[in-house]
Structures are given as structure tokens and as C-alpha cells.
């Protein structure tokens, strides 16, 4: 029996890890010193506070009691008690409630239409050799460089009879050339063997798109759908141009009217006869309502961002 006992198998790896801890380099980059670490922590902490504090103040002001809001001069960081009177005043069937329903309709229907058209157009442009493929792709690329302008767009919407119609908020922005290029790049990068196997089994172009292309494109479609949804939800400029009936205003236009422009929110606009909370509380409540839906949807689609966007963009 040997006098020298064999070392455990993981002894070498332990020594390697200890050397790495003592090493002044991390992957060839000098290890930051304690002063640099403290400075980075201070900078990151300050950046986080600058992002979180305004949002926390908006939520707190909307939930604070009217007395505390008046006493604080309009901005509350930590509410003394929770008061939902601002939200109750908003959801009484007035202009804010109607605007919220309009925004939900425009966002839901618009995103569905945009995703359908973008996926179909991206698939068609990815099929090399099809009739008019290069010409249509060139036409899509040209729209990235040249925009029609406000007056021509308004005249087109007017000639189509879409003024004061919710479709004026959907149809003019139904297809984004950038999103089409991203989806096309994703379809181009799909393995050709998969498409060939579907055709060998007798699938036509539509069946291949529906049963093979769409299931594989879920990550990129989720990302593009989020882009479309956020765009429809946050859009207000088209409503300013095409919608003159206040009952058809989306939530963002109401937000601009009563928060950005500082117009007073009266009891008649909210459809109530009761005393209203302070204007600041109502404005902050509208802000919260306009922000929260995006914050709720984003975490469910975040995991698709790296796979969808990188795959769709790099392979193009």
C-alpha cells in the first residue's frame, strides 16, 4: 500500500477556485477594488431611487387621503391611510371609464389585427422565389425611410370615412415595417428541412404557415405583439387628429388633457354629483391606470425578448 494517500478528486478543483478568488484578474479584466465597488453601488442605488421614487409618489398620492394631499401640497411619498376615493370617482361611468374601455378595445383588436397581418406578410416575404417577393420587400423597406406626413395621412383617413371612428386609431398603424422585417428574418432562419418535411407530407403553403411557421414563431410574435400593444395603448396623437368626439377618446388622450395640459377634472366629466378628491389625486389615479396594464403584461412576455428579438434580428 502506498505511503502517500491519493488526494480527493475535488481537491484540485478547490485549489483552482481559491486561486481564482485571490487572482487580481477576472476573465482577463482587473478585479475592481473596494473603492470602485462602493462607487458602483452608490451610482446604481441612486439610479434605482430616481426610477422608483417618482413612481412610488404617483401611487401614494393617488391612494392618500384628501387632507394629506392638501397638507402636503400635492405630492405624497408615504400615505398615512389608504383612500380609494380618487379611483371610485374615476370609475363612475364618466369620461375616464369610457376612455379606458376605448383603449382596451383599440389595444386588443389592433394588436390582433397587426399581429395577423405582420405574421402573414413576414411569411410571404420569407418565401424566396415567390411572385413579387423582391418588389414587395423593397416597398416595405422604402417605408422605413420615408413617412407619409401628417397632412397626407389625414387626407387618406378622411377619404376613407374614418374620421371620428375608432378604426382611425387602428388601420393607419396596423402594420409596422420594422416588425415585418424582424418576423421575416425569423422565418428565413427556420430550418428548411422542417418546411420540406411538411411539404412532403402534402401540406400546402397555408397549412405549412399555420401548423409549422406560427408555432415556431411564438417567441418573436410575443415580442412584436408587446410592441404593438404598448404602441396602441400609449398612442394619443392619432386620436388628437382624427377623433373630435370626447366620448371616443382613448385613455392617453384623457391623460394628456387632464394631466399634461392641467385642465380641471369636473364632476360632470366624471359623471358624478358627489364632492371630488383633490385634482392631484385624480390626475395621479389616471396615471396609475394608464401605467399598470403594461406593467402587468410585460413580465409574462419578458422571457421571450432575448430569444425572439435576437433570433429575428441577427438572422436577417
Automatic annotation (TrEMBL):
Q: Which UniProt keywords apply?
A: Cell membrane, Membrane, Transmembrane, Transmembrane helix, Transport
Report the InterPro entries cross-referenced here: MetI-like, MetI-like_sf
CDD domains from the xrefs? TM_PBP2
User: Which chain regions cross the lipid bilayer?
Assistant: 41-64, 99-124, 136-155, 167-190, 220-243, 282-301
Q: Where in the cell? A: Cell membrane
- Tell me yes or no: is Transmembrane helix among this UniProt entry's keywords: yes
User: According to its UniProt record, what is one Pfam family this protein matches?
Assistant: BPD_transp_1
Record domain ABC transmembrane type-1: where: 100-301
- Please give an example of a GO cellular component term from this record: plasma membrane
> Which BP terms in the Gene Ontology apply to this protein?
transmembrane transport
Q: Which SUPFAM superfamilies match?
A: MetI-like
**Principal place where this protein is found?**
membrane
Q: Where is this region: Disordered?
A: 1-28
The protein's topology relative to the membrane is: Multi-pass membrane protein
The cross-references to PROSITE patterns, in alphabetical order and at most eight, read: ABC_TM1
The entry assigns this protein to a family as follows:
Belongs to the binding-protein-dependent transport system permease family.
Q: What is this protein called?
A: Carbohydrate ABC transporter membrane protein 2 (CUT1 family)
Organism annotation: Pseudonocardia kunmingensis
Amino acid at each position: 500500500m502506498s505511503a502517500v494517500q491519493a488526494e480527493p478528486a475535488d481537491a484540485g478543483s478547490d485549489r483552482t477556485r481559491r486561486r481564482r478568488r485571490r487572482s487580481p484578474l477576472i476573465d482577463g479584466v482587473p478585479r475592481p477594488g473596494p473603492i470602485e465597488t462602493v462607487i458602483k453601488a452608490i451610482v446604481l442605488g441612486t439610479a434605482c431611487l430616481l426610477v422608483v421614487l417618482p413612481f412610488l409618489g404617483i401611487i401614494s398620492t393617488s391612494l392618500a387621503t384628501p387632507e394629506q394631499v392638501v397638507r402636503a401640497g400635492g405630492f405624497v411619498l408615504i400615505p398615512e391611510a389608504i383612500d380609494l376615493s380618487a379611483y371610485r370617482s374615476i370609475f363612475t361611468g364618466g369620461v375616464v371609464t369610457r376612455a379606458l374601455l376605448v383603449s382596451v378595445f383599440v389595444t386588443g383588436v389592433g394588436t390582433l389585427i397587426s399581429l395577423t397581418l405582420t405574421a402573414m406578410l413576414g411569411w410571404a416575404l420569407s418565401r424566396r422565389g415567390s411572385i413579387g417577393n423582391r418588389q414587395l420587400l423593397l416597398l416595405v423597406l422604402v417605408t422605413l425611410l420615408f413617412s407619409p406626413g401628417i397632412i397626407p395621412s389625414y387626407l387618406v383617413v378622411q377619404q376613407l370615412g374614418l374620421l371620428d371612428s375608432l378604426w382611425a386609431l387602428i388601420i393607419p398603424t396596423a402594420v409596422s415595417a420594422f416588425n415585418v422585417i424582424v418576423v421575416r428574418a425569423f422565418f428565413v432562419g427556420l430550418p428548411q428541412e422542417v418546411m420540406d418535411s411538411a411539404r412532403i407530407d402534402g401540406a400546402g403553403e397555408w397549412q405549412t404557415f399555420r401548423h409549422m411557421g406560427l408555432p415556431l414563431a411564438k417567441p418573436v410574435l410575443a415580442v412584436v405583439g408587446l410592441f404593438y400593444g404598448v404602441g396602441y395603448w400609449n398612442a394619443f396623437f392619432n386620436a388628437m387628429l382624427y377623433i373630435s368626439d370626447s366620448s371616443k377618446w382613448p385613455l392617453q388622450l384623457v391623460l394628456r388633457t387632464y394631466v399634461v395640459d392641467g385642465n380641471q377634472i369636473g364632476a360632470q366629466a366624471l359623471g358624478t354629483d358627489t364632492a371630488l378628491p383633490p385634482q392631484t389625486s385624480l390626475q395621479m389615479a389616471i396615471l396609475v391606470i394608464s401605467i399598470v396594464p403594461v406593467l402587468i403584461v410585460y413580465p409574462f412576455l419578458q422571457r421571450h425578448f432575448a430569444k425572439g428579438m435576437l433570433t429575428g434580428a441577427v438572422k436577417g
